[in-house]
Design goal:
single chain, 8 strands, 2 helices, 6-stranded mixed barrel, mainly beta, 9% helix, Cathepsin D, subunit A, domain 1
């Protein structure tokens, strides 16, 4: 089961937070609180201090388009997450500050018993 909550951010807006089990370098699950970001198409971003806490090893770097529309280069790390009771191998991008859960991890999540466009039928 995925746990989470909706909370106000410093700008007064609302954010959906969930807890994700990310495997550390020893393969042990560690709880990470992340913001659900529907504009982020990747798996997960974590700040540098969280990546250090997990002991993840840098796998490389990639360019990605950010919210402003500009390209930026980000370090990434390979690990696994426990998501809906299953282990998924993912890439974690190092973020400047916010831990984000993206659409790649949400895709195919159980608990969505409808098909978009059919709610009114």
């Amino acid at each position: 089961m995925i746990r989470g909550m909706v909370a106000r951010n410093s700008d007064g807006g609302l954010e959906a937070w969930v807890v994700v089990s990310v495997m550390d370098a020893a393969g042990e699950p560690r709880q990470c609180e992340v913001i659900v970001d529907t504009g982020f198409t990747g798996w997960l971003t974590l700040p540098e201090n969280e990546i250090r806490r997990l002991g993840l090893v840098r796998a490389g770097s990639r360019f990605s388009v950010i919210a402003s529309g500009n390209e930026a280069e980000f370090d990434y790390y390979e690990t696994s997450v426990l998501w809906h009771g299953r282990l998924h191998e993912i890439e974690v991008f190092q973020s400047i500050d916010q831990p984000l859960l993206g659409m790649e991890l949400l895709e195919g999540s159980p608990g969505l018993p409808w098909t978009p466009g059919t709610a009114g039928t």
